[in-house]
Amino acid sequence: MESLGIVLPDWHELPDFGLYLDQVISLTSQAYAGDPVIAPLTAGMINSYVKNGLVDRPEKKKYSRAAMAQLLMISFLKQTSSMESLRSILHPADGTDTECIYNQFARAFAQVSDFLKAHPELSRLECAIAAAVCQTACAGKAEEE
User: Fold this and answer.
1) CA-angle at 135, arms to 123 and 103, nearest 5°
2) 3-state secondary structure of 19
């Protein structure tokens, strides 16, 4: 799924066999290569996310499909979300599985990207205001959950 130069693989396109750390870094870098703002993940960052419970632990040094999806979401969301917010998004209390969360993420990403492409007249200020409004609204939702 491509939006705004970012190519997010669909869930079924993510490898369903274990990936080594360097392969994970390569895949996440490829997905966000079209966006100059999103910094590539490093081995240290990934290890920190695993240590802090944001990403599923690798088994025999191999990362699962779910971990790959979690890292793709973190790569994008870390720009505006705290570690605690990321934890509640990626591991909700209701037990929603990673596949469902990733599919929601990819759908929402595409919808917002399509909206922005359809409205190229929006200024940086208007985009910033929209982002702030969304952030404020979502902060209230987090408190409700």
Assistant:
1) 100
2) strand
Distance CA 145, CA 132 (A): 20
Tens digits of residue pLDDT in 38-81: 888 999 999 999 999 999 999 999 999 999 999 999 999 998 88
Contact between 101 and 66 under an 8 Å Cβ cutoff? The reply is no
H helical segments located in the chain: 21-31, 43-51, 65-77, 83-90, 98-118, 124-144
pLDDT for the residue 79: 83
Percent of the chain with pLDDT over 70: 92
Number of Cβ atoms within 10 Å of the Cβ of 35: 13
C-alpha distances out from residue 107 to 10, 25, 47, 66, Å: 10, 23, 28, 17
Residues, the chain = 145
* Bridge partners, 122 (sequence order): none
Query: Which of left, alpha, beta for 56 (phi over 0: left; psi -120 to 50: alpha)?
Result: beta
d(CA 55, CA 23): 16
User: Is the pTM above the cut of 0.90?
Assistant: no
Q: CATH 1.10.1660: does it fit domain 2-144?
A: yes
